[in-house]
Design a protein that fits this description.
Helix content is 9%, strand content 30%. It is mainly beta. It has one domain. A five-stranded antiparallel sheet has the order 1-2-3-4-5, with no helix packed on it. It starts with 5 loop residues before the first strand and ends with a helix.
Length: 149
């Protein structure tokens, strides 16, 4: 079975099972599977991280909470806001904007970077923002992760 680019395993000692999380190039969970190779759940998102489809019916849906670069979707709070915690501030996937301004002031030679509420220069397919502060080209992020940075 080949789903996504990477798979990570997690042991559930309480239920004596193992779950594998299959991710895309950004690290977003696309599917979970069990040790017997059966698909437990599938997830689809738009470019901003908004969930479009979710077949997870498990009692402990850990995979549903994690999106790209370790960002987390708010599914646990009482209000279930649907906001994404991007390691430094919250992102609204409906608008593609952060709720608070970026502490990074941007680059004078790159005017789009001066917008302090914008996510990934308004281009989440090409850029990511792993820290919630400074967008990087996805190719650069992948290259850094391949060398252990």
């Amino acid at each position: 079975m080949n789903i996504g680019r990477r798979a990570y395993g997690e042991d559930d000692t309480a239920n004596n099972t193992q779950t594998y999380y299959h991710t895309d190039s950004l690290g977003s969970v696309l599917a979970t599977s069990k040790a017997n190779k059966s698909i437990a759940a599938r997830y689809d998102y738009n470019a901003w991280g908004k969930e479009l489809n979710n077949t997870d019916t498990s009692d402990n849906p850990i995979g549903r909470s994690f999106l790209e670069n370790g960002h987390q979707m708010d599914r646990e709070s009482e209000n279930k806001t649907g906001l994404i915690y991007a390691n430094a501030r919250y992102l609204d996937p409906d608008t593609g904007r952060f709720l608070s301004f970026d502490p990074f002031e941007g680059y004078d030679e790159k005017p789009i970077s001066l917008h302090r509420y914008m996510y990934a220069y308004q281009n989440p397919v090409r850029y990511t923002d792993p820290t919630g502060k400074v967008p990087v080209l996805d190719e650069v992020r992948q290259g850094l992760s391949n060398v252990g940075v």
